[in-house]
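Have a close read of the entry that follows and walk me through the local backbone shapes. See right below:
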Amino acid sequence: MRRTSDGTDVAVTGLGAVTPAGPTAPETWAGLLSGIPRAVPDPLLAGLAVDFSCPAPFDVSARLGPRLAARLDRYTGMAVSAAREAVADARLDTSRWDSSRVAVVMGTASASTEHHEQVYALMAAGTPEKVSPMALMRSMPNMSAGEIGIDLGARGPNLSVSTACASGATAVGLGRDLVRSGACDIAIVGGSESMRTRSAAVCFHQMRALSTRRSDPGAASRPFDAGRDGFVLGEGAGVLVLERTEHARARGVSPYAYLAGYGASCDAHHMTAPHPGGRGAAEALRRALADAGLAPADIGHVNAHGTSTKANDLAEYRALRAVFGGETPPVTALKAVLGHAAGGSGGIQAVCAAFVLRHQVIPPTPNLVALDPAIDLDVVTAAPRRTAVGAVVSDSFGFGGQNAVLAFRAA
């Protein structure tokens, strides 16, 4: 490892998550280590060509109370819950912090499809008077960041970003930049999404992006497998607390990891298809490593985007080979367990990356029966792999060719 913390790295001091593997970050981590896929038949999608998904065990009202739940969309409720958990995990006292120095940056790909469907149904039925006056506000893409700021009293920069399925990682990277620049001491960052809706399922199916393995949903998400046929709709939120290293030290907090690097790029190639050679993804990887002051040989693990689609997995492999050559680090694709949480995925992956560095163990990728012969990767399968990991990169790629890569260093 070529670098130690010099004050420009940013400390990861708190983690929060809501995912199909569990309603908290530790439960999510345990679920990922178990390697049990969470895809099941979904009553919300009954009767559709693809009628299964990966739902999160999360009740907004039960977790946050009926009064707050009445104004929150599901994706916002998961974000607020994960943010509360992350702040508590960081041992931050919101009554004593300088709230003007606390930023919130959250990512989402589509915000709420749930409430749009409800509004359209009421309009189509000729009953517009039944549309809630809160419907528009509940579905706006800035509401996850806004509601976190309101809930925690964070009065610093409050930003929402949308870079499709790279949104969560982009938000983490931009939050890191705010802390590093001195604009704030603390940034609450991540992504949240809930696209377990009929319209999302129909649209993705029409694009031939979803797995149609209805007879065995648990085996449907198969990143890098020769038999992969698409992703599985998921949902969730992943939130991290980032702090200036000196600020965390002054509080006597031991970081999970340091967020040392962030790289972003655009394929500038196609609306939905990645560049077949992984050109933009490779550039984002190189930029993250350069920003972190790390060499490819320093990376001990890749938390892959791993959607389980033919084109994306192959493009990601080619990007990894372009950067790492024949010495690609051990790879895990969380979507085999969690499904695809779209804009929430990058935040969830970042939470997992921090856990990997804290515990020095890499979760497995289930459902990989036969590695695609065109892909030569060391994918961790069957069981968690305990190994020395000094640094991790986490890949997130989205429609529009938008790429974001985060580089974490062990604390």
Summary: The first helix runs from residue 25 to 34. The chain has 14 helices and 14 strands. The first strand starts at residue 10 and ends at 18.
